[in-house]
Amino acid sequence: SFEGVDDGAIFVFLDMSDKVRAGRALEWVPAERIVNIDHHLGNKRFGRWNYVLEGEAATGVLALNIIVGLGVTISPAIATCLLATLIADTGCFMYSNASPRTIRLASSLMEAGADKEAITEQLYQTRSFEGQKVLGRALDRATLTDDRICYSIVTQDMLREFGASHEDLEDVVGALRAVERCDVAALLKETDEGDYRLSMRSRGPFNVMEIAKGLGGGGHFRAAGASLPGPLEKAIASMLQAIRAQMWVRPGT
């Protein structure tokens, strides 16, 4: 437990399909003290109170529903935070989850004073020098297979070489997905323990959430992730086998 945390404290978990995504520091929190607010498909309902709207554009939409329900005035600061969730989870409204309703919500948040320019500057136009160098290395060592899988690996050695962290890797899998002739993009990120975090993105009919679920993970139709045990060769083989198995599944089956 955390020192100084009241025994009756309630923990609110946001945007997590599984409690383990909060990290080991919160493993001890019992379900009866958890509020689980999320929009991911396959959420495990790990709290006593679970507010889950699977398939909603962003968890920020659920937060907005709660704020409106409580009668709280939406200040420009609140509106900016909520709009940031919509922009991030829809890829600047490029992804298929950006519905007409999503655009209307974004418009209402801008009318409430959300700072769209500050959001896009921070999310898409500001990158650490270390992260950009890791991105370059990851693209340099990327592989594009004949069956249209583009993947790369970021090791702990690479992070140390450039002084980067896992937080600097947000752009890598998206850059892999942008490659022409890529249907499924995948990035393996080595953990401190020598295992690998798998991040996937797809285009067209390819459901990476089903791939991730088969590997014990989850996410969305075109953006999902899982954890894979090392060593690297084993992780790559498991990843490719799982992706190829799903690529042979007909859409809708």
Would you kindly provide a written description of the structure presented here, covering whatever features stand out?
- The chain is α/β, with parallel strands linked by helices and 253 residues long.
- The radius of gyration is 19 Å and the shape is globular.
- The termini are far apart.
- The model has no long low-confidence stretch (mean pLDDT 93).
- β6 (184-190) and β7 (196-202) form a beta hairpin.
- It has 2 domains: 11-122, Alpha-Beta Complex (inorganic pyrophosphatase (n-terminal core)); 129-247, Diaminopimelate Epimerase, Chain A, domain 1.
- The chain is built from 9 helices and 9 strands.
- The longest helix is centred in the last third of the chain and has 16 residues, at 232-247.
- α1 (59-69) packs antiparallel against α2 (76-89), α2 runs antiparallel to α3 and α2 (76-89) crosses α4 (116-124).
- A 6-stranded mixed β-sheet has the order 4-5-6-7-9-8, sandwiched between helices. Strands 1-2-3 form a 3-stranded parallel β-sheet.
Which descriptors apply to this entry?
globular, alpha/beta, six-stranded mixed β-sheet, Diaminopimelate Epimerase, Chain A, domain 1, three-stranded parallel β-sheet, 253 residues, inorganic pyrophosphatase (n-terminal core)
Write the layout of secondary structure elements.
Layout: E1 11-14, E2 34-38, E3 49-52, H1 59-69, H2 76-89, H3 100-111, H4 116-124, H5 129-140, E4 143-144, E5 149-154, H6 156-162, H7 172-177, E6 184-190, E7 196-202, H8 208-214, E8 218-219, E9 223-228, H9 232-247
Parallel strand pairs: 1-2, 2-3, 5-6
Antiparallel strand pairs: 4-5, 6-7, 7-9, 8-9
